[in-house]
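Predict the structure of Queuine tRNA-ribosyltransferase.
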Amino acid sequence: MKQRKPISFKIEKKMAGLGRAGILITPHGEIKTPAFVTVGTKATVKALTPEMVSALGAQVVLANTYHLYLEPGDEIVRDAGGFGKFMNWHGPTMTDSGGFQVFSLGVAFGSKVGKLSKVPQGENEEAFVVEEQSGRLAKIDEGGVTFKSYKDGSEHRFTPERSMEIQHNLGADMIFAFDECTSPAAPYEYQKEAMERTHRWAQRSLDAHHANDEVSSKQGLLGVVQGGRHRELREESARVLGAMDFDGYGIGGSFDKDDMTTAVGWVNAILPEEKPRHLLGIGEPEDLFGAVENGCDLFDCVAPTRTGRNGTLHTRDGKINMRNAQFVRDFTVVDKECDCYTCKNYTRAYLAHLFRSDEMLAGTLGSIHNLRFLVSLSEKMREAILSGTFEILKEEFLERYRKTVER
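Done. Here is the predicted structure for Queuine tRNA-ribosyltransferase.
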């Protein structure tokens, strides 16, 4: 008798292109897509309780394998019943593979290259040297990654098999195959090498996952498409991984910001339509529209809570910085169209006071607002897909949002 899949995905309505609205069923509940995934890196959404996260409409929380492995340790999380139970979150859960730390601690260590970057042109791109890894916290070989803890400098080793073991212990509903994320500045030859290594690691991840019947019946495994900004590599990765027995797919790697939505479209035109797709590490409102219309169902990012703690808040008219003097006597709400707890109860003047005074409550109220803004935007996209008005929503939202530069 064939084992029942731990997650399933139902498409409710398709757009003219690749976009769709659906329902993703997990062991801990349904996720109505498209949906923004809240990041709780260390089994906590910074400055918020799980009850607050739930109240603002978040459906799913993603935790970081690398960080929970280092602290408190994946075996402690296992013995607590998994990270969802550990943090008192009762809904669907996800963990990444630790693969992004290969990038952030390796080729990106000490640089300004991030998830979305402007790609250097001409000779600067040629100057990307992948062999020189001295002084970095992570070193890559065919078997896996050797890295030093950012906490105490101790040496550790991640392989596809070890990543699966750790993620099994963390107990999320959806987990990711171990992959190598590359810099958008990396030359073509290295992008291809890293992609092919990711494919080999994907098969090893699948083998290790399916070798454990108990957990593979409870946790869905998602393969991660790589290939940088090169169409032929992205499409090759989508074909190779799409032929493997994954429960869904992540789209990984770092992107040139101008290329991101195009690259996502290349990939999703090939990946199996009946399986969910998650765009890893993307969370700006403009980028969410591009992701959704190009076939992504889920997306996660630390940006809304990180910027929210620092005083930069989303509004329908662009971003505002609550530390700016112009808000000290502004007794209006952050966004009069927002239905979050912060906007229902507090003024810009009060938030400006909290941020300028470095009060702890500032981070809580800012994070609530920014998370609700993106969750609400995802909800509106879903409604617009179902009603056939997505293009209208996109045009009206972006025209207004882009009118005001961050101030």
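DSSP finds 17 helices and 18 strands in the chain.
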